[in-house]
Amino acid sequence: MQKSWVITIDGPAGSGKSTVAQMLAARLGAVFLDTGAMYRAVTAAAMERGADLDDAQSLQEVMETTEFHFEHKGPLLRALVDGRDFTDRIRDPEVTEKVRHVAGQPLLRERLVQMQRDFAARFPKVVAEGRDQGTVVFPQAQWKFFLEADVAERARRRQKDLAAAGRQITQKELESQILSRDNSDRHRQVGPLAAAADAIHIDSTSISAQQVVEKMLQIIHGEKHGGN
Ligand code: DC
């Protein structure tokens, strides 16, 4: 492997990207870049301000008048908004529900893409996770992965995470939330959820995060070429 590189992992909500990206970064001594955390931080800041999330101008104003800072902290990306720690708050279901407003704004995306590149430039080895990392943000990445899983399995994983956080929500409702998020992620005009032409697809429906990571490591170390 070269001394400095970027690995991208894209895929839909609930495909296991974050877990896999964190584990892969730890195995390779790399920094994990959670780009969803950036979209979430802008959303949480806009909500706190009471900005009109449907209004591009209003969101733009939040972006311009708020200081966003992202720090690499262990396996997490720490999100600071005007110096305050928003790392937990950005995971609130209300933020998850509203984040598509920010994700759909081309000018905001431009700023966040720049922040992602600036962040990555500070570290020699980066595992970047999101929706457009292999297509838009790091088209020259050394390895690109696209992680998928069927919707029932993604809802089941999400239900488990939520139950651990004391929230009960039905499988059916979660499936419908996931499908609606997929729909807005895949169909937005800029930076849609998409696999790069040279991405390696991995389906995680019936394998563990650990097994996905092992597959990726085999590919990275040249023992296996693509596919499942
Ligand atoms: O991965 P996540 O659930 O934390 O991402 C939250 C939202 O942010 C997701 O619904 C779409 C958006 N997002 C994006 O548009 N582009 C990225 N690179 C990462 C996330």
Key terms for this structure?
228 residues; alpha/beta; Rossmann fold; three-stranded antiparallel sheet; 9 helices; binds 2'-deoxycytidine-5'-monophosphate
Report what the structure shows.
The chain is α/β, with parallel strands linked by helices and 228 residues long. The protein has a single domain (5-212), classed as Rossmann fold. The chain is 49% helix and 18% strand. It contains 9 helices and 8 strands. The strands form 2 sheets. Strands 2-6-1-7-8 form a 5-stranded parallel sheet, sandwiched between helices. A hairpin with a 2-residue loop joins strand 3 and strand 4 (76-81). Helix 1 crosses helix 9, helix 2 (35-49) crosses helix 3 (56-65) and helix 2 (35-49) packs across helix 4 (93-103). Residues 13, 35-36, 39-40, 99, 103, 130-132, 181, 185, 191 line the site of 2'-deoxycytidine-5'-monophosphate.
